[in-house]
Design brief:
mainly alpha
Amino acid sequence: MKAKVHLLDGRTTLRSKTPDLVLQEFYAMMITHAAIRRMMVEAAGTTGQAAEDLSYVHAVRVIKRRLLPPPLFPPEGRQSWLDSVLAEIASEPSVKSRNRSNPRGVKRKMSGFNTRKRGEQLNVRCEPVIRIFTK
């Protein structure tokens, strides 16, 4: 999930200790994700781009960098701040990854063990063969 990776800076756990507070923190993260996506839609609308063409990671970085603490955020400058943030978000489109000419593939690590085929049993017990040698 992009929100967990990019909004929480790589932390994999939530900070809260009780289930209710974890749920509250999860909802806050989802609302933040939705707000960033909404700003991306607005930024795309001002430049005539499609919202899918903008980079989510770039938008998160712009907003984190441009977000000021509440006392330093004058109410009369809100619209100019918002316009400049939307312009900066729209300035960097995402890298195109659709319609790949080379589809993704799974790389396998080299191993000395034989690979198991699909449907093959995992642990097959070999019965010992008793041979009697006579002269």
